[in-house]
């Protein structure tokens, strides 16, 4: 069993990954500045698993704080979730994104190197692929220039980590390219709790269903897809969390830097998601059609064969499971962690 440092561990994907790590018997140190999360998530992670973790409140751009964590705990590997992720905001305050996501990642790997820790799993995104690629997207397809600054930070960090692993064979780095994480832990005790107006489809749908928002705007109805609405590869956050454990095992045994897509391999349209949500949960989701959102592609879904073959990972949850679990979380926590 390993001692894992989880940056951004109080966040949506991080908290679900902490549950799986603790259940698998690993020791967990969470390092998070709580800029987009609540410590309550970690209280619940510990209650759910009946295991404790160590929480250190700190910023990945703070070298001293990181050095203290590595000095105090014998860390074997790092899972790096910490960063900012709002696409629209990244267009308005690019420097804040470059600083948190790029400078923050540099600061983290520098601290790892000082501490002689060379195993890293990095949260990347399907947004790094060139938009000209036709889905299913596989890891050998070319990356492009993401249309937004958030995506740009993911691409830069990926490239930086690839170059680092070439220059120094001690590094072993997994780049996990997430497709669209949704869902929540079965218990409904932890889930996605976006601040302000949600940018993403799933939390918007659940907030309409719970009465916090009036109606969903469906961005575009004239895409070249099954019903004209955008198609994405939704992946249950618990399946995604488990991919990190598989990647960790792989990286503790191999050197170099390698990318894996983490998606189900199935595309679902926005209308399909809305309609299935209504059917599975027996609640109505008011909606209207709105113009396309700038920067959106018609279709994006994964070829996940590499992750299945090399990581021994396999997604377990259906779209119905994802939508039921998202709703279970939202209806139990209408205001998120604020109660
Ligand atoms: P999240 O905002 O819920 O979690 C990120 C966590 O990092 C938060 O707890 C936040 O407080 C913390 N954090 C931010 N900046 C920090 C800093 N400078 N120092 C320390 N902590 C900091 O987001 P999430 O959905 O859980 O995403 C986790 C990672 O996965 C992010 O890197 C994100 O970009 C990436 N990702 C997310 C998605 C998605 O759709 N959710 C898709 C692809 C990739
Ligand atoms: N959508 C709506 N209405 C909304 C929100 C979204 O119709 O209120 C549509 C979008 O147009 C898109 C689909 O729902 O067709 C999914 O949109 P999301 O915003 O949930 O997800 P994206 O695919 O745009 O973005 C996600 C992550 C990003 C990541 C990107 C990579 O949120 O972090 O995938 O493809 F960069």
UniProtKB/TrEMBL annotation:
Which top EC class is named for this enzyme in its record? isomerase
* Cofactor(s) required, per the database record: NAD(+)
Which pathway does UniProt place it in? Answer: Carbohydrate metabolism; galactose metabolism
A GO molecular function held by the record: UDP-glucose 4-epimerase activity
Q: Which domain of life is it from?
A: Bacteria
Q: Which InterPro entries match?
A: Epimerase_deHydtase (IPR001509), NAD(P)-bd_dom_sf (IPR036291), UDP_G4E (IPR005886)
Keyword annotations from UniProtKB, A to Z: Carbohydrate metabolism, Galactose metabolism, Isomerase, NAD
**Substrates-to-products reaction catalysed:** UDP-alpha-D-glucose = UDP-alpha-D-galactose
PANTHER family listed in its UniProt record: UDP-GLUCOSE 4-EPIMERASE (PTHR43725)
Sequence similarity: Belongs to the NAD(P)-dependent epimerase/dehydratase family.
What protein am I looking at? Answer: UDP-glucose 4-epimerase
Q: Which organism does this sequence originate in? A: Acinetobacter defluvii
Q: List the gene name.
A: galE
């Amino acid at each position: 069993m390993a001692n894992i440092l989880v940056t951004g561990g109080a966040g949506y994907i991080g908290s679900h990954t902490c549950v799986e790590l603790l259940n698998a018997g690993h020791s967990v140190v969470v390092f998070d500045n709580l800029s987009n999360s609540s410590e309550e998530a970690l209280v619940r992670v510990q209650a759910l698993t009946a295991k404790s973790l160590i929480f250190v409140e700190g910023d990945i751009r703070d070298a001293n704080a990181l050095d203290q964590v590595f000095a105090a705990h014998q860390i074997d590997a790092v899972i790096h979730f910490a960063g900012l992720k709002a696409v629209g905001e990244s267009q308005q305050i690019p420097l804040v994104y470059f600083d948190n996501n790029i400078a923050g990642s540099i600061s983290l790997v520098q601290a790892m190197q000082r501490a002689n820790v060379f195993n890293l799993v990095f949260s990347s995104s399907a947004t790094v692929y060139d938009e000209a690629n036709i889905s299913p997207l596989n890891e050998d397809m070319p990356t492009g220039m993401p249309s937004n600054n958030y995506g740009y930070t993911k691409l830069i960090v990926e490239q930086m980590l690839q170059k680092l692993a070439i220059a120094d064979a001690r590094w072993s780095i997994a780049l996990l390219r997430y497709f669209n994480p949704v869902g929540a832990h079965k218990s409904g005790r932890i889930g996605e709790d976006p601040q302000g107006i949600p940018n993403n489809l799933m939390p918007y749908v659940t907030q309409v269903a719970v009465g916090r928002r009036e109606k969903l705007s469906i961005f575009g109805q004239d895409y070249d897809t099954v019903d004209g609405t955008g198609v994405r590869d939704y992946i249950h956050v618990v399946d995604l969390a488990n991919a990190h454990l598989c990647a960790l095992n792989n990286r503790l045994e191999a050197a170099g830097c390698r990318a894996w897509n983490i998606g189900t391999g199935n595309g679902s349209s926005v209308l399909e998601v809305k309609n299935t949500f209504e059917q599975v949960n027996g609640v109505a989701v008011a909606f209207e059609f709105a113009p396309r959102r700038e920067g959106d592609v018609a279709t994006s879904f994964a070829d996940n064969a590499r992750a299945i073959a090399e990581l021994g990972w396999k997604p377990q949850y259906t779209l119905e499971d994802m939508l039921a679990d998202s709703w279970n979380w939202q209806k139990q926590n209408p205001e998120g962690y604020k109660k």
